[in-house]
Write a structure and sequence with these properties.
This protein has helices at residues 9-15, 21-26, 35-39, 60-65, 77-82, 84-93, 105-108, 118-129, 147-152, 158-172, 201-206, 209-221, 239-257, 280-291, 313-331, 352-355, 377-388; strands at 70-75, 96-99, 133-140, 177-184, 226-231, 264-272, 296-305, 337-342. It is α/β, with parallel strands linked by helices. The structure holds (3S,4R)-3-hydroxy-2-oxopiperidin-4-yl beta-D-xylopyranoside.
Amino acid sequence: MFNNRLWTRRHAIRLGLATVSGMGVAIAAKKISSRQEILSSNNQQKRTAQDFEVTSRTPLKSRAASKGLIYGAAGNYPALSSDASFKARFVQECGILVPENELKWHPLRPTASSFDFSKGDWLAKFTREAKMLFRGHNLVWNQFMPEWFLYSANSQNAEKLLTEHITTVVKHYAGQMHSWDVVNEVIDPKHGRPNGLAHSPWLDFLGLEYIELAFRVAAESDPQALLVFNEAGLKYDTQEHEARRNTVLKLLERLISKGTPIHALGTESHILAHETAFNPKKLRTFLSDVASLGLKIMVTELDVVDQKLPVDINYRDIAVASLYQDYLSVVLDEKAVIAVLTWGLSDRYTWHSQYSPRSDGAPVRPLPFDSNLQPKLAWNALAKAFDNAPKR
Ligand code: XIL
């Protein structure tokens, strides 16, 4: 589809199609081929639908809340504003909403001097009316940047652009935001920079200090919001994810030692069902290390990609649910984890339909509810994970 010669960083950023973080990094993950291993990376037991039985349909938000946890999902304006039954499901199950795209630079800032808060405001109002928390995603990223930025940003004006963007946007929602992803996907050791940082116009123009600057400006603009460093590719037992975990820890330590107002790590959790390589011990240790820095942890962007699993729906749903369960049983054991957000709620609206479609054309099934808004085994796995989680 794309001509390689055009596939420069600038174009990738402009199209908003540069490496789909959790995905790109996970491609390198160790292949696990046997059915048994796919179904359970923690223990070698095959599972069946019965293993995910739950005794009630108490919504996920209530099950999470009873353990001091927040459960919610990414939702977008087109779906929530036009689909009443989806909206009702969202309200029933979610204690927090994060706009999937509406608060990214591209939709929010059509020109250098104008902001369009209309869709974000609609979503904010929806959360107020539904008595749901609202969460911001994101203030600084190297993707989803407007065209005008790519052609006019430079090392002279970058600090002003960043500061005015964060000030305007964070102040606009001040007092309403549970948390903000201040920086998003800032590392990528594959890019070959000595400090493990990803290519980014912000890094090019402002150096590493852009991260600290972003947190400071966000804290000044809304002293109440939890300020989050959201990062992908931290979960597998691969050299690459190990390098990413080490890089993140070093960066977090550095930020904290400089007194940066950073409050939590967001761990993006796009899990590839066909090639996972969890090591519960390493994942658990990493989360403890983060917690010991005094940070909270939010499980962000959780979904399980069934793109390359056999087409059989029963098989796929058990495999997907197993991965939700395997992952969450490790992650929720860490009491610094305060929230779990899936990247979408129903297979009716998932970015994977576009980004990770199946080659056989069958609809993908990565989320807790199916495309008819009925709960799947993945919902049961989430429910059980909350039921079994230690209380915060
Ligand atoms: C994705 C959205 O889900 C898509 O609708 C959009 O086309 C591309 O971005 N990491 C992130 C999210 O931090 O913002 C991305 O969201 C998924 C990967």
